[in-house]
Amino acid sequence: MCDGCDDDGWWIPDSQAYKDHLRNDNVCTTCERHFDSLNNLRHHKLVHLKPSVECYGCTRSFTTYSGMIIHLESGTCTSGIDILDLNKSAAMCYCCKLRSCRKHELC
């Protein structure tokens, strides 16, 4: 049933007990991998998400916004975007709420 449980000698008597085990013992319900804390399990679950955050500079996608920012800051983006470009894109014009406003020069 569960690779981690088999290694530890666990025996799950029925499907409800198995579901309870997955929920209560920090086990990923997708791949049945065991984790020592709920926080580690939550972090792991990101690997199963479909990447939906597109890079500003290239065609790569990431599961989190912070993953995309790390990609850009590390210099691995083929577009050549660097930290200064990121800072400029984060600036927002208070007059019209645009990120790159030339009309108001970011007020």
UniProtKB/TrEMBL annotation:
Keywords of this entry: Metal-binding, Zinc, Zinc-finger
UniProt key word Ribosomal protein: no
TM helices/strands, residue ranges: none
InterPro entries, per database record: Znf_C2H2_sf (IPR036236), Znf_C2H2_type (IPR013087)
Annotated C2H2-type domain residues: 26-48
GO function terms (MF aspect): zinc ion binding
Gene3D superfamilies: Classic Zinc Finger (3.30.160.60)
Protein name: C2H2-type domain-containing protein
Source organism (scientific name): Cochliobolus sativus (Common root rot and spot blotch fungus)
